[in-house]
Amino acid sequence: MNALYIALAVPFFVVLIGAEMLVNRRQGDLRYTFHDTITSMSCGSGQQVIGLLMAAVGFGGYAFVYEHFRVATLSPSAPFAWLVLLFGVDLGYYVYHWASHRISFFWATHIVHHQSEEYNLSTALRQSWFTGFTSWIFYLPLAVVGFPPLMFLAMTTLNTLYQFWIHTRAVGKLGWLESVLNTPSHHRVHHGINPRYIDKNYAGIFILWDRMFGTFTAEVDEPVYGTVKPLRSFNPLWANVEHLAELLHRSRRTRRLRDKLLVWVMPPEWMPADLGGPVTVPEVSREAQRKYAVVVPRGLNLYGALGFAGMVAATTLLLWGAARMSFAELSWGAGVVLLGTATWGGLVEAKSWAVPLEWARLAAAAGLVVWLAQGTSTFAVASAGAVAVALGLSLWVGRYLRRRVSEAPALVSAS
């Protein structure tokens, strides 16, 4: 059900992102950059297809606790139960979100959402591939209380969809709503790396939790967006594993066994004494921020745009058809999408492995079409078309096999 809701929402996401782009362009304010936007949305595609494969982890865990440990059974036909669940899910999200910023391991599964140095609607889709492995734990009290799994799934989907629209700089403060709801202004603060804004405003729908628990800060000056240590990459795969790799590196380098364990559970700014001690968040300004950028040939950008459109289409089809596909077919499709995110980053950053990996991905994509078309009246046409498209795209991207690394990267000033 969650996958279907998201699939239905995808066209609206794309339309709203396009509308925000047009508004920004008319205002002469370039709040979208091509490579950052594709990277953010590719992270979202990856999260969705991995979620299809691993749904049994979160939803299955919740259902297990509900079946074996619930103390009551709340009816989906009771409006009051839905109202309580609305606040219960949002409180669970607040606690999860707090933990995702204050416990290093959880931060490693959430940091992706904050890595963009822009703040726009595409940032809302920039989600970690591993969130689903950890977030469900924080909602288990709702299973014990007795909220049925499908009720829980519907409400968590609503909570997620609400948070899409607050990722924008185009909406100012909203009067009395600022006292109750999480708004674009409140969430801009949450994405800021200014010391005054760090680790504030964890709310999903209701800002009440931050006001109650002392984590609220109002927006005064527009924040500087990103992470304290910038990612400096447009590779969605690397974005998702970079901080996990960093924690492994710290754990290996520090000498004391206690510190090797603490690097995973202490706040992100904590560092063992033999690695330099705690990190201080520096003062930053929009004028001084240097955003990561790459210089890419126009033809390769066009290839990337078409490839991304295909990735979105493939993701949407997987979300729609998941219930009718075998696990092997889902895994094959998910692999094609995930390889696409990796080759996107490698191509724009002129990595030597990117073109060969893209060739392999195109072959896998054509193979999947041939496999799915077996036994249908369109087998011959679909198979020939898939192979022809894969060969044509292979020739196109092959032109960049020996592209020099010197063409990338570069840094540009913040706008």
UniProtKB/TrEMBL annotation:
Location of the protein in the cell: Endomembrane system
Domain of life from the UniProt record: Bacteria
Principal subcellular localization: membrane
Keyword line: Lipid metabolism, Membrane, Oxidoreductase, Transmembrane, Transmembrane helix
MF terms (GO), sorted A to Z: glyceryl-ether monooxygenase activity; iron ion binding
Positions of the Fatty acid hydroxylase domain: 82-215
Protein name in UniProt: Sterol desaturase family protein
Lineage, highest ranks first: Bacteria, Pseudomonadati, Myxococcota, Polyangia, Polyangiales
